[in-house]
Amino acid sequence: MTETTSGPARGSRAKGSKANKGLRIERVHTTPGVHPYDEVTWERRDVVMTNWRDGSINFEQRGVEFPDFWSVNAVNIVTSKYFRGAVGTPQRENSLRQLIDRVVKTYRAAGEDHGYFASPADAEIFEHELAYAVLHQIFAFNSPVWFNVGTKQPQQVSACFILSVDDSMESILDWYKEEGMIFKGGSGAGLNLSRIRSSKELLSSGGNASGPVSFMRGADASAGTIKSGGATRRAAKMVVLDVDHPDVEAFIDTKVKEEEKIRALRDAGFDMDLGGDDITSVQYQNANNSVRVNDAFMKAVESGSKFELRGRMTGEPVEEVDAKQLFRKMAEAAHVCADPGIQYDDTINHWHTSPETGRITASNPCSEYMHLDNSSCNLASLNLMKFLRDDDKGNQSFDAERFAKVTELVITAMDISICFADFPTEKIGETTRAFRQLGIGYANLGALLMATGHAYDSDGGRALAGSITSLMTGTSYKRSAEIAAVVGAYDGYARNADAHNRVMKQHSDANDVAVRVDDLDTPVWAAATEAWQDVLRLGKKNGFRNAQASVLAPTGTIGLMMDCDTTGVEPDLALVKFKKLVGGGSMQIVNNTVPKALKRLGYQPEQIEAIVEHIAEHGNVVDAPSLRPEHYEVFDCAMGERSISPMGHVRMMAAAQPFLSGAISKTVNMPASSTVEDVEEIYLQGWKLGTKALAVYVENSKVGQPLSAKAKEEKKAEAPEPEKVVEYRPIRRRLPKGRPGITTSFTVGGAEGYMTANSYPDDGLGEVFLKMSKQGSTLAGMMDAFSIAVSVGLQYGVPLETYVSKFTNMRFEPAGMTDDSDVRMAQSIVDYIFRRLALDFLPFETRSALGIHSAAERQRHLETGSYEANEEEFDADALAQSAPKAEQGSQAASHEETPDSKDAQRTVAESEAPAPAPREAHNSTELLEMQLGLNADAPLCFSCGTKMRRAGSCYLCEGCGSTSGCS
Questions:
Q1: Is 960 a catalytic residue?
Q2: Where is the composition biased (Basic and acidic residues) (predicted)?
């Protein structure tokens, strides 16, 4: 990408200095004489974002300008989050060009002022290449860059901060203030409280100390009152305590006790749902908590021996505890409320480039940035799918050369930003300028692995992830050494030179022994090996410009900006996605990566089409036609029928960790059936495999479940008076003597039958009759009984969609091919029956949410990307045939009471039991809830009301881009 033409220098060059010749910048994507903006087609769009729960408009800006290939979601999020200026004024940005220019031109100017470039021509190439990469969603800086750079407000570029606190009231109060200012600026912070003396130690006055846990209350309350960055997101923070602190058990218990409080208050009638009115009374909810363990403690856990807790003032033992019991206490707490996480202190400091200055004691809120106290890190992430290429023969490869060149470009820009950046405190500014910590990372790893036919939990998947991570970090440090030759090494390098070069050798050695698996990862490993050899050579000659280069962050909002399918190092959430459409509306689509994966695995186009159709209908690949069972694992996701095992997540973290300066923001998802022992095993294996930090989340472990305001009102309205006992009985609505009906003949797996479906005159399915095989056979008798039971249920008001959701996908013989063009395959007779009934009687929106479409609709989806047809495509006959014949909500009038048995009432009640999933999806998380019939443990977005999804240790809203984290 670049070359240097100078020797080493100390410190940043003064403005206008000509002592060094600077960096030569090479063109990668751009053409001389042509601006990147002139190579794309621009279009105007209207951005109107509403809160779907109450219909209010959260944000509106019309006529914004974006390239035609940007998705609706990316346009909405960039316009609402990153455009500066008051909406409705001439000062408001209205084009992506303005946003990119505001940031990129600031970086170019700072680079020229501080002597980074060899000539104005190189500066121009730098500007154009950077603009091209952002324009084409190849990479993105972290959110504070887009918020602040090029504006009149402070030029804060960092998303992650680490603070420090000492054992004095002055320091503790400074902690509160500094944390609050960071939250106000839209970022997050972490710190270690282990310097504060424990509640088991004495004050100089003779009384007992309060201990760190008591001071956590004040900080938590402060964080809970601050919406970071105005209204963009709430405060994010990390609190760490060393495992040998005498108050460590009280620290572990903080959230467990609050979880018990939530249960008690909920049972007493208080609104304790996530985002509820009364949840604010619960303490310690605004921070992620982690226990910092060392090797001595983990070895004591393995051997079952005692472990000493030491006083903060003297370092002498205060108490001796059973290491296994303390470890189990951590696992029990995490099993109940996901906290505390665990950080491995000796592993972290083994990879520390600046130990002579101080130890690494804490991390940012999402646990990926780990370095000195009172420091910060600015992040940027590369979109890995942009580097996957297919040749003319259909063979795939990862473009390692172009990936390395873009990495060099981004690292250069990130280092330049420190030259002009502002910081929330003077101490953070001093440390950051002296050590220049950077955090380049990537997004879309999960999508890349699936598209290349790799299971997330496989040797091939881990090898590809490891090789890319190694190449990224090796290239970054190589570039850092080249920049050091131009503008000097970081100020703290001289004192830490031996340690820094030792860590570079550790990275290089890990690269050399890594296992090569296939044709995709092997060339990337080769490129990484070459990069690390250059690192060792250039580092000894020039030193390094940056004490840290890489992390793997959650990539929440910027992942949406780049139209990434997966965030950070995470696997795909599900195979079917929720997609917003231009002009309004939305639809569900099968991930674009699925066909690429099937092609890589050798499937033919007609097989790929059938498998994709199966996924669209069922939401998973199980029993998909032609798909070999050994390939199922390629399509495993974070959630769903085939979800990745907890150890699969840990092994992926371990594959990437040796090639990162920092750590990885990731939560290990565990099924609801997981035990405390399972959590213990995850924490133990995380240590053995060399990860730096882990957090677990057991599904459905949290008490508070998000509910819409409407649902809460309905819940309160349905609650009977305490002193009254009200018995609700279903009322049967009988069909008249003459009723319209449809008779359908069908064949399922060779078994023939007839179905007659009769309706109420004012629409609404009222009864079903099924005839199978010969009269008097067992199958015929069971079908007769089944059809009577369904008919009675329909007449008592059980919605047809309830039957459809319960009986579709039920598997038993006979099963297989049918003679129905709309339902080509059926897993059983009842599977076919209720799919046919859904197509004949349910409105499009209802059955589409259940994944049921006609052949014409599926064909339309393949041709236009939409299941829905325009009105002009229908003639009168087609419209009459496709119109829904039933609307179950119309069965409210003219009911007839009959004294049926309690058994019948119970059957109907069970049929009517509401599923926890929403009826209408507004993002991928809610769509997945509908498919799986579950309620995802995630908060509602405080900006737009949609269900958020996990992004690392934090949460991300796909609707508006808000995050609960710091990146």
A1: no
A2: 894-905
